[in-house]
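Record type: ASSEMBLY
Status: queued
Input:
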Amino acid sequence: MTPAALTVAALSLDLGPTRLVDGIGFSVAPGEVMALVGESGCGKSVTAQAIMRLLPDAIRQTGGQVRLGEEDLTALPERAMQAIRGRRLSMIFQEPQAALDPLDTIGAQIAEALRQPLSRVRAEVRRMLEDVGISDPERRIDQHPFELSGGMCQRVMIATALIARPAVLIADEPTTALDVTIQAQILDLLRRLAIERRTAVVLITHDMGVVADIADRVCVMYAGRIAEAGPVAEIFAAPMHPYTALLLASIPRLSDVPKSPLAVIAGQVPAPGEYGPGCRFANRCPRAEPRCATTTPPLLAAGQGREIACFAPLADRRAP
Amino acid sequence: MTGHLAGRFGQALVACFGVLTIVFFVMRLSGDPTLLLVPEGASAEQIAALRHELGFDRPMLVQYVAYLGDLARFDLGESLVQRAPVAGIVAERIPYTVALALGALLVALGIGIPSGIAMAVWRGTVVERALAAIVLAGQSLPTFWSGILMILFFGVYLGWLPTSGADSLASLVMPAVALGALTMSTFARMTRISVLDELSRDYVAAARARGLSRMAAVGRHVLRNAAIPVVTIAALEVGNLLAGAVIVETVFAWPGIGQLAIQSIAARDFLVVQAVVLFVSIVYIAMNLLADLAYAAIDPRIRLER
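Status: finished
Output:
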């Protein structure tokens, strides 16, 4: 197995006395797309910010490690971290138009990732724009974000993130703000560039459909912890954690009887700070046992590269 | 863009006309200037004769139309008190007020904008609190009081600066600081809010994610975006500076148009007051047109829209 491009180990993030992310870990290999899936508030976006070391002031990393290749980023001074951001580790955002400076040309912003004025790297920027599928790059290079559509802006963001050939790309909900048809194009582009450039991609999403489209592996997060992780094909075929199973069941399918009610997971994710001592899904779980409410199930290997944190996993393909 | 500017210019002319009309009639409500011009004990016939000579016995609308007719020929008329052309009287004072306003603007921009940026970038630190105290002082101390305190301290006690008059560049320092203080505070507050607002945007996070330091992100992206609301305020503040000049020029005996306005109002020297108001409105309107051009220079969205 190739050594991991990015390893997150036992990462914990606290907001004051409240633990937002509780000892999560995963790794991503070069050229692999790893999806971090979960409902809003489960801690996936702060995990991305922690990897980039761009957490808001109020949130602190209180434990764990983030390693880029062999290098531990956690202990690095800010200046060294700045040299890494954009070059070896980069990120794209949910709202591409908001993530670009409205007053600056897109070419100048892409060139910033190379730490060069646009005039000196113009040819390189143009090639990158072509690579992300922007037509007429020579004209686009001097345009401003408002002259581009949302999908094109996300292509520009991807160009900015990948032009310096980073080892790892964090994509935080990169298609959530886009039209469905554009979504598929952007996902295809990410997939293709990841393979071509051997970039490890951490794809943060709440959308199991997106996961099925492009991810190789998936980590399902629930309330600041990992519930289940493993290869996408295996997990989609036979989810073991009741939460994963319910998430998959809640995707509407074309084969559903028209107007049939959408499947929902009853109850709500507990807020950080309101977690009990046991499994955090216990109050919504159809398979919960008495010990689920009192003891935290550990994340254990379950064969075929899978991991699961559940006392009462689904062993077979039946839905719960 | 040109069409837009032509439109704004038309609006500006209408605004000038409106201001003149209001001043014309309000001044005439203040009383008859003839009574201030005649010597004590003058007979009713003498007063009536002078009034007739000056044209104040005509119906107000007739006076108004005659005034507009003169204006259309760029004739501002003759001062009732000094018996000299109004244009010359006002023109003589303008350089002083322009120097004072520029000095004040220099103080306001030079201190206000860097302070505002610093307060936003170092939010919640001792830097912000120290600057906030200065800004609060600039905003709360009335000019007539801070001006007199400065005269006492720097002029009388330390003897560093002349207490009044307009003899040298040194005489400009205190009036410029006194006049600029309030505007400085406005700039500092506006800049702080604007920079804070921009700092929370996604493009700042994205710039940092591609390796820019916080300061580089501020310098390359935040400041230009934050400038837009500050430019608007700057145009409006020039109007406030001219209004404030009336007080500051009186406190420091600065021979500008503010002082002239006060003297002319007291003497009911209508035509001089009207000329001063006309000048101030033209400056104010020109500043707003300039702000419009500045937006277009800063923001490509505006350049293309129009």
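Annotation: Chain B has two domains: 2-72, 90-298.
Annotation: The radius of gyration of chain B is 24 Å.
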